[in-house]
Write a structure and sequence with these properties.
Layout: H1 8-17, H2 33-38, E1 43-45, H3 54-61, E2 66-69, E3 83-86, H4 91-103, H5 105-119
Parallel strand pairs: 1-2, 2-3
Helix pairs in contact: 3-5, 4-5
């Protein structure tokens, strides 16, 4: 998790309590976003509201499948070809899509290729 928002400490505590903190990297604020995205396999955005998140465009440029909550401008960017939209406040839906992308590498590869192609669209250059 990159960044330091108002819920960062709470997310870390939840991960610790669930016994999964070791599966995550809590990076805090970062200045080299592309390098961190290049090291990732999937991009997850679980906002309750977003206008037009630049972070998703950055994930497209990195060729990452995107799993994001269906809110605000996110639905203008994400569809089934590049990943999936999931309901807001539904961690089970997010987890199901993440597990599908992990369990089906060919699906993740198709979403990755589609994300790279979307990044080349004129609106993102």
């Amino acid at each position: 998790m990159a960044g330091k928002g108002p819920l960062s400490d709470q997310v870390g505590a939840w991960a610790e309590a669930a016994g999964v903190a070791g599966a995550f990297r809590f990076l805090g604020p970062v200045s080299t976003v592309p390098a961190h995205l290049a090291a990732a396999d999937i991009f997850l955005l679980t906002s309750r509201w977003e206008n037009l998140p630049i972070s998703i465009v950055e994930a497209f440029h990195a060729g990452l499948p995107v799993v994001a909550t269906d809110c605000g401008g996110v639905r203008e960017l994400v569809d089934d070809s590049v990943g999936a939209l999931v309901p807001v406040d539904d961690p089970e839906a997010s987890a199901a899509v993440l597990m599908r992308l992990i369990d089906e590498p060919q699906l993740a590869a198709r979403a990755s290729a589609a994300a790279k192609a979307r990044a080349r669209e004129p609106r993102f250059i």
